[in-house]
Specification:
Blueprint lengths: L3 H14 L6 H11 L23 H22 L6 H18 L6 H6 L2 H22 L12 H19 L7 H15 L3 H8 L8 E4 L6 H9 L6 E2 L4 E2 L7 E5 L5 H9 E2 L11 E2 L1 H4 L5 E5 L6 H13 L1 E2 L8 E2 L3 E6 L3 H6 L5 H7 L2 E4 L3 H7 L3 H14 L3 H15 L9 H15 L15 H12 L4 H16 L2 H8 L3 H7 L2 H5 L9
Helix pairs in contact: 1-2, 1-4, 2-3, 3-4, 7-8, 13-15, 17-18, 17-19, 18-19, 21-22, 22-23
């Protein structure tokens, strides 16, 4: 018999199986499902921990054990003909999805799949065979035909997409701060939307039609975000041939528009015919044409795109249509389009440099990457984890030693309050410099506060006595923060709590002031 305790566990696990795994709600649901057995996590949401893998986490082990045991028991009852309501059967369906994911799909090596090859295809076929047997065991129940319409190949493809998306985001978009947590969650939502059930039912073949626009300062990981989305697209599984309908070897095509001339951009994107222009000695396929259905083209620095090419790109975004340079034949872009910029596109539209119709087509899905300073202001101790990730890629087995060296050097010479104007890219440079020369010399800018007209304006208002105390405090906090670039350092200078400083910053005034990296 299915007990009330079973139903409670099923209800929680059903929500857990379809929640965004990078939001705090995931850990909250683990806690609710396990009760006293739950082992508290160090962070508010799942963050990369180099000391253990996902399946090694104690709470996952306990959840898997309970789910396996309950799945076998309920299956026996249903096979014997026990009648349950439709809600319980839906919970059971989600339970089996969870069990099959951890039992089989986590065995698929995503990195090997991205590289491709006969060996990984053989492994896929083996795991599919086992998956299918257990799918039929749990869901092909003569006395409960509700599950007969379920397609095992779609289940397999959907769960493998979840696996690829999770690892692409979890392993590459790092940070323990709330801004980093929110970024991972936004990337997941960009792949599956906020409603994974609806995505799995009807949206999975159509999400590639939505363009994603990634904005944020230089060095904040916009290309990492684009790569994670690209490698997370749905790939159909062919049950007869026991293979996925496409690989990921050429699934991500990044093109930096600021590094190319308009003519070269047009040729790279759309391709050209022989004789279309001087030097076009043969027909050439462009990136749009070469992109597979399960892949994506990433247009970095979209704000630099020539207006004439914007018109042609608009057709691609609207209906996927394009033509090579020098031909009339219409071709179709089968993949997903991703774009990024660090520029203010609203200002570019106002100045007539960027088409409004293209902008509104691009921003059906938007992601904003946080600065490194944003992350450290929220959680200063997150710096060590980011250093560790960079060190791991550089020296592997000696990563912990290098992490200690770099962290100590930063604390001693530039301080935790340093603004990191170059963001993650600058931190990478710092780690390399300390590795090679045992020091890092950041580029400093000095701008006199009196040179800023907005600063002068509020100072004059203060002299005239036209500001309230609250306005004066807000503008003074904003001015100091604009020069130092750090909440923590501003708080130390003003003798205030860091949270108080954050609450007093005038965001509109800050946009008009020059923000500087702090000196220590």
């Amino acid at each position: 018999m299915i007990t009330p305790a079973d139903r409670r566990f099923l209800a929680v696990l059903s929500r857990l199986a379809y929640c965004n795994p990078f939001l705090p709600v995931r850990l909250e649901l683990e806690h609710e499902a396990l009760g006293r057995e739950y082992e508290p996590e160090e962070y508010v949401a799942w963050s990369k921990d180099f000391s253990r893998q996902e399946n090694e986490r104690p709470n996952i082990k306990r959840l898997n054990a309970r789910a396996e045991k309950l799945a076998n028991r309920i299956r026996t009852k249903l096979h014997e003909g026990e009648q349950v309501d439709e809600a319980t059967l839906e919970f059971y369906r989600d339970l089996i999805s969870y069990v099959l994911y951890y039992r089989f799909v986590t065995q698929l090596d995503v990195e090997s799949f991205v590289r491709g090859g006969a060996r990984v295809q053989k492994k896929v076929a083996e795991i599919w065979g086992e998956f299918l047997l257990h799918f039929q065991h749990f869901l092909r129940l003569p006395k409960h035909p509700l599950f007969d319409a379920e397609d095992p190949a779609h289940w397999f493809a959907s769960l493998f997409q979840v696996r690829r998306a999770f690892l692409s985001i979890f392993d590459n978009i790092l940070g323990e701060s709330l801004p980093a947590v929110q970024l991972r969650a936004m990337v997941w939502q960009s792949v599956f939307t906020h409603d994974m059930r609806r995505y799995r039912r009807v949206l999975y073949p159509r999400m590639r039609e939505l363009t994603t626009l990634i904005t944020g300062p230089s060095g904040t990981g916009k290309e990492l975000v684009a790569r994670a989305i690209s490698l997370s697209q749905y790939i159909e599984f062919d049950a007869e041939q026991k293979i996925f309908a496409g690989g990921l070897q050429n699934a991500f095509s990044p093109l930096n528009l600021s590094a190319l001339s308009p003519t070269l951009i047009e040729s790279e994107l759309f391709g050209h015919c022989r004789g279309a222009f001087t030097g076009a000695l043969a027909d050439r396929q462009g990136w749009l044409e070469n992109c597979p259905a399960q892949g994506a083209v990433f247009l970095d620095e979209i704000g630099e795109l020539d207006p004439a090419i914007q018109v042609k790109l608009l057709r691609v975004v609207q209906d996927g249509a394009f033509s090579r340079i020098g031909e009339a034949q219409q071709r179709h872009f089968a993949g997903k389009l991703l774009a990024a910029t660090h520029r203010d596109l609203a200002q570019a539209m106002h100045e007539g440099r960027f088409r409004e119709d293209l902008y509104y087509r691009l921003c059906s899905d938007q992601i904003k990457t946080p600065t490194l300073r944003n992350q450290l202001d929220d959680r200063p101790e997150a710096l060590r984890g980011l250093i560790a990730f960079i060190a791991q890629r550089l020296v592997a087995s000696e990563a912990e030693t290098l992490t200690d060296e770099v962290e100590a050097w930063i604390m001693t010479h530039i301080g935790i309050g340093y603004a990191w104007p170059g963001n993650i890219r600058e931190l990478e440079q710092c780690v390399r410099n300390v590795l090679v020369r045992q020091k890092y010399e950041p580029q400093r800018r000095i701008i006199s506060p009196s040179s800023n007209s907005e600063t002068a304006t509020w100072l004059r208002e203060a002299e005239l006595g036209t500001l309230t105390f609250a306005e004066l405090l807000s503008r003074y906090c904003t001015s100091v923060y604009a020069r130092l670039g750090s909440y923590q350092q501003t708080a130390e200078v003003l003798g205030l709590d860091r949270r108080t400083v954050r609450s007093k910053i005038d965001r509109e005034l800050l946009k008009t002031m020059a923000t500087l990296p702090s000196a220590n």
